[in-house]
């Protein structure tokens, strides 16, 4: 562990620390951020009335739109001169979300990422191949600072230029890699194509995040790169990657570094706090941020949390995998569908691979969903085909049957009919370095 004393703090001490920090941060934002003064005043909340964790629900939520409305620097609690760094998240529409850090915030950022890396199996002296994008995106520099704090040797490769990544991994022999799970899939696949076996690779651990992934991808990456991979979670608004990380021992949920980030799970519709274990929207209050502290920030990410003790000895609460972002949720003919649900169904069908894309169109007044999915290499060879087209599929009963099977399983478990298109190995989109968009929603104009 990077900070064993803090990471194993007994629950009652952790709670006392959180409450002390909560009181301080509420007073701090009320004093310094006009937006929060207004928000609390309008909600009729007396900042002094927020004393314990039970008082948390009294506070209004902060939403992404609030950040957009105060673009670029309107939510900062310190003068611009005190900012040591600025990051921004891509944002699919319009202006990006801008976040800032004081020197102290950057130190906290490095600490929580160092904790995350250590939880993932990394040790001082190991080498990190950091294939997260550098730049305004928090991934690259975030992992970088944490690895340096832990005492690793960092290779700041950034994303993309896959050929060069493969070479550097073989030549430099790093023990740890960080990137998106979809890019780890790409790297594993490219090594396999070149006949480089996982045993030849020096990699032992992979720290993967920035997009939802499932156990199917974990298995593929673990086997393909010869690693034990763990999940890293975070978002720029709260700090960046390193809000939470799985421990490599258990890999059963990610420990949230809750002496800095206070989590809640709330009902997506009513905003009411949900009981432990129930899936809802993850909400965070930053407890130590100076430049841009946020109260009850609505992440839009769906998961659950559990206080069940973990064998690794860390006392910090664990969150489950992210089921999806509320923004990623597709409503197809009234049914809510998350890409991860589709992926889970695909994982139960040996003849297909977890390389897929969901395309949604509107035909007249009806939503039409098409699931494009790759058949496995083994199946492709077995049927002796060179390419797949509609004619080939119609003519070959084995392909025809597979298509029906996929469609049935999707319908059975998700409740939505999808037109299934089978793709030959290698035909579905791959990550070329960053996050992979698995959904193409053509309904939005
Ligand atoms: P952008 O909005 O440009 O993607 P961020 O890096 O702030 O910028 O993205 C944060 C979001 O990425 C999170 O709110 C979440 O939806 C997603 N995310 C980050 N880490 C994970 C993870 N480990 N699993 C699933 N989703 C993740
Ligand atoms: K991210
Ligand atoms: Zn643990």
Automatic annotation (TrEMBL):
Pfam families on file: AMP-binding (PF00501), AMP-binding_C_2 (PF14535)
Domain AMP-dependent synthetase/ligase, which positions? 77-284
**Record InterPro entries:** AMP-bd_C_sf (IPR045851), AMP-dep_Lig_C (IPR028154), AMP-dep_synth/lig_dom (IPR000873), ANL_N_sf (IPR042099), PA_CoA_ligase (IPR011880)
- Which EC class is the enzyme in? ligase
Q: Does the keyword Nucleotide-binding apply?
A: yes
Question: What region holds the AMP-dependent ligase C-terminal domain?
Answer: 334-443
Among Gene3D superfamilies, the record links this protein to: 3.30.300.30, N-terminal domain of ligase-like (3.40.50.12780)
Under Enzyme Commission nomenclature, its number is: 6.2.1.30
- What role does it play? Catalyzes the activation of phenylacetic acid (PA) to phenylacetyl-CoA (PA-CoA).
Q: Which family does it belong to?
A: Belongs to the phenylacetyl-CoA ligase family.
Q: List the protein's name.
A: Phenylacetate-coenzyme A ligase
What is the species of this protein?
Thermus antranikianii
The top of its lineage is: Bacteria, Thermotogati, Deinococcota, Deinococci, Thermales
């Amino acid at each position: 562990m990077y900070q064993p004393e803090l990471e194993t703090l007994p629950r009652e001490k952790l709670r006392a620390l959180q409450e002390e920090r909560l009181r301080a941060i509420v007073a701090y934002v009320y004093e310094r951020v006009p937006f929060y003064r207004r928000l609390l005043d309008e909600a009729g909340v007396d900042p002094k009335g927020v004393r314990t964790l039970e008082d948390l629900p009294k506070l209004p939520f902060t939403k992404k739109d609030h950040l957009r409305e105060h673009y670029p620097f309107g939510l900062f609690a310190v003068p611009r001169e005190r900012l040591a760094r600025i990051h921004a998240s891509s944002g699919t529409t319009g202006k990006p979300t801008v976040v800032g850090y004081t020197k102290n915030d950057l130190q906290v950022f490095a600490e929580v990422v160092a904790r995350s890396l250590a939880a993932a199996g990394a040790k001082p002296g190991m080498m990190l191949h950091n294939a997260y994008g550098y730049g305004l995106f928090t991934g690259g520099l975030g992992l970088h600072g944490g690895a340096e704090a832990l005492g690793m040797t960092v290779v700041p490769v950034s994303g993309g230029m896959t050929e060069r990544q493969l070479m550097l991994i073989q030549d430099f022999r790093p023990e740890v890699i960080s990137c998106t799970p979809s890019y780890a899939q790409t790297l594993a696949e490219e090594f396999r194509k070149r006949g480089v076996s996982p045993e030849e690779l020096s990699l032992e651990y992979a720290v993967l995040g920035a997009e939802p992934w499932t156990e199917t991808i974990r298995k593929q990456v673990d086997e393909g790169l010869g690693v034990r991979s763990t999940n890293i979670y975070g978002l720029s608004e709260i700090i960046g990657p390193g809000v939470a990380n799985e421990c490599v021992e258990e890999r059963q949920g990610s420990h949230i570094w809750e002496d800095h980030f206070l989590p809640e799970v709330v009902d997506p519709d009513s905003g009411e706090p949900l009981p432990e274990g129930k899936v809802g929207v993850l909400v965070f209050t930053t407890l130590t941020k100076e430049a841009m502290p946020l109260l009850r920030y609505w992440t839009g990410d769906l998961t659950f949390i559990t206080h069940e003790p973990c064998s690794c000895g860390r006392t910090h609460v664990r969150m489950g995998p992210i089921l999806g972002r509320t923004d990623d949720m597709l409503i197809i003919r009234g049914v809510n569908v998350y890409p991860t649900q589709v992926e889970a169904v695909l994982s139960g069908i040996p003849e297909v691979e977890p390389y897929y894309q969901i395309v949604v169109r509107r035909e007249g007044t009806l939503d039409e969903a098409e699931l494009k999915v790759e058949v496995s290499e083994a199946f492709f060879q077995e049927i002796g085909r060179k390419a797949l087209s509609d004619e080939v599929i119609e003519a070959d009963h084995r392909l025809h049957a597979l298509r029906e099977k996929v469609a049935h399983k999707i319908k059975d478990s998700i409740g939505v009919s999808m037109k299934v298109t089978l793709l030959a190995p290698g035909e579905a989109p791959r990550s070329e370095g960053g996050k992979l968009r698995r959904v193409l929603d053509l309904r939005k104009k």
